[in-house]
User: Which sequence fits this backbone?
């Protein structure tokens, strides 16, 4: 099924918020096509009656839904690239 | 007496508790060893000399005051740089987290330190744990201590190399598709991937959340058991950590091999395995037979689909987990972007290396509209089939044995330009992550001067059987006592 083109990579890169160079776009298109070609093997299996497995938990647990203190705001903002007045500052959201 | 840096964690603990040697002397000996060989191996991204000596002195003071001796008193440990220690860098081998200082400490690290372990430093890794050679680190290339022209494996290559190079008797790694077991095999040390849910992942930077697990490296199975007893157990801060009691893994070691049934999937081992690795694997099986175990042939018919399944599931989860690196709340931020959209794109382009980008693209693709059913959903179904294969096989045997890696340590650059060839190196390790079962990698000799590895897999939460058989194997061999010549 796969024939990954540069256009496919561009579409997916947009979804993933990745800016790629022209070199990366061409390289990834070629490599993804190769990887997906290899992954075609799973298409041959009959999985109609098989439940999907999303995790391997056999003994998970739930905690009581009780409010508790989170991390202090100042502590969290210490790692922020551009904190301002207790908030994360970002550039304009809508195009200029 | 052999040099302090050659001692096992268990021996160090015994000597420190008996006050034959101080924790400070042990830490100093390992820091001196580190200075002597690190220039050749490059296993560490950060060495915490002052902090380590302070912690070691605190262990000595507590013992002098007559406090109860903790399980890892004075044992030096190296931590993969994917686990947080409050206030210290956690880079994940990535430029995007270069300046990040986490405001909390991972439970696994906190448990080691509470048990008297002394953290020496943070170790190198493939960026975001994506890779099988540690070549994807944005910072340095870690060398295999057995042959400095070869890779240590990955993604926990720094931790495996540190233990092999005798700069630490114990290290922590993480294993999403083999990232503990494969470097353990390539560096000739022991590595345990516990059952999914055994060890709290609080403070672990996520790669693929349904597969990631934290585990120890050491040179002996006894040391791995000692560390596992400290690491395992429920943590209220990680709801995926299991509320099961943790056995005394050290006590389990005495059982020997008698009566154990070892399943070998011979059909799956027919092709693609290096001759030397295969020869050592067969010899390892005879050692286990001599220890009283019995071999049975088993079939795991869906394993040929494991790599495809793994690289769909893992990249899908990674593409979602790595969405958090957006330049807004922490980590790198691109300079002066025109708007928020460009801030995201440019930050991620500058901050991520090629393998991480490749996996984000692949993971986003398999989750995208029109491809989700054919790739992601189908891979989740094949994952069920792989788990069922193991459930069925474990009715007829107690463990499954394979080589850990189909190939020994390869040369730098050998697979770096061909991602698919790199992925295929994980063929024997990814099934355990997909099925959620525990796996143990044990060094089983050398072929052409490079370490070979035996892998044992067991039922969920049956680490005891793995460790018991691993200890029986090491009781009958001396491969784990060989030391690389680093001068």
Assistant:
């Amino acid at each position: 099924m796969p024939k990954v083109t540069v256009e496919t990579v561009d579409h997916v890169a947009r979804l993933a918020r990745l800016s790629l160079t022209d070199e990366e776009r061409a390289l990834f298109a070629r490599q993804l096509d190769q990887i997906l070609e290899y992954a075609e093997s799973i298409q041959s299996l009959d999985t109609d009656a098989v439940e999907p497995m999303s995790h391997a938990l056999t003994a998970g647990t739930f905690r009581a839904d009780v409010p508790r203190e989170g991390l202090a705001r100042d502590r969290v903002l210490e790692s922020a690239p551009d904190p301002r007045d207790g908030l994360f500052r970002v550039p304009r959201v809508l195009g200029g | 007496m052999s040099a302090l840096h050659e001692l096992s964690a268990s021996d160090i603990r015994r000597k420190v508790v008996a006050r034959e040697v101080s924790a400070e002397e042990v830490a100093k000996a390992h820091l001196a060893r580190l200075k002597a060989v690190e220039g050749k191996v490059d296993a560490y991204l950060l060495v915490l000399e002052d902090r380590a000596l302070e912690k070691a002195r605190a262990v000595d003071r507590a013992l002098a005051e007559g406090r109860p001796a903790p399980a890892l008193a004075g044992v030096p440990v190296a931590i993969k740089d994917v686990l947080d220690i409050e206030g210290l860098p956690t880079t994940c081998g990535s430029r995007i987290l270069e300046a990040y200082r986490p405001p909390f400490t991972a439970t696994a690290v906190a448990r080691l330190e509470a048990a008297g372990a002394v953290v020496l430093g943070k170790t190198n890794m493939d960026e975001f744990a994506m890779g099988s050679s540690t070549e994807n680190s944005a910072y340095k290339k870690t060398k295999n201590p057995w042959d400095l022209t070869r890779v240590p494996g990955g993604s926990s290559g720094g931790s495996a190399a540190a233990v092999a190079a005798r700069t630490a008797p114990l290290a922590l790694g993480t294993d999403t598709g083999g990232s503990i077991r494969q470097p353990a095999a390539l560096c000739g040390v022991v590595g345990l991937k516990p059952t999914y849910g055994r060890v709290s992942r609080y403070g672990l930077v996520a790669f693929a959340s349904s597969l990631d697990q934290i585990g120890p490296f050491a040179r002996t199975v006894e040391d791995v058991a000692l560390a596992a007893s400290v690491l395992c157990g429920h943590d209220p801060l990680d709801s995926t950590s299991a509320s099961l009691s943790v056995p005394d893994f050290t006590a389990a070691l005495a059982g020997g091999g008698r009566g154990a049934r070892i399943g070998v999937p011979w059909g799956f081992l027919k092709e693609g395995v290096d001759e030397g690795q295969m020869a050592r694997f067969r010899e390892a099986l005879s050692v286990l037979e001599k220890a009283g175990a019995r071999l049975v042939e088993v079939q795991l018919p869906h394993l040929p689909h494991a790599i495809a399944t793994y690289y769909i599931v893992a990249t899908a989860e990674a593409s979602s987990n790595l969405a958090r690196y957006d330049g807004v709340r922490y980590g790198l931020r691109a300079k002066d972007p025109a708007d928020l959209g460009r801030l995201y794109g440019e930050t991620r382009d500058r901050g991520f290396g090629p393998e991480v980008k490749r996996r984000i693209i692949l993971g986003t693709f398999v989750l995208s509209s029109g491809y989700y059913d054919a790739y992601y959903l189908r891979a989740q179904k094949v994952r069920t089939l792989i788990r069922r294969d193991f459930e069925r096989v474990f009715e007829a045997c107690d463990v499954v044995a394979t080589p850990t890696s189909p190939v020994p340590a390869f040369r730098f650059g050998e697979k770096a330009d061909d991602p698919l060839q790199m992925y295929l190196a994980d063929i024997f390790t990814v099934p355990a992550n997909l099925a959620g079962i525990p796996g143990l990698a044990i060094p089983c000799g050398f072929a052409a001067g490079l370490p070979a590895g035996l892998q044992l897999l067991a039922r969920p939460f049956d680490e005891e059987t793995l460790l018991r058989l691993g200890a029986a194997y090491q009781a009958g061999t001396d491969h784990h006592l060989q030391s690389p010549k680093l001068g």
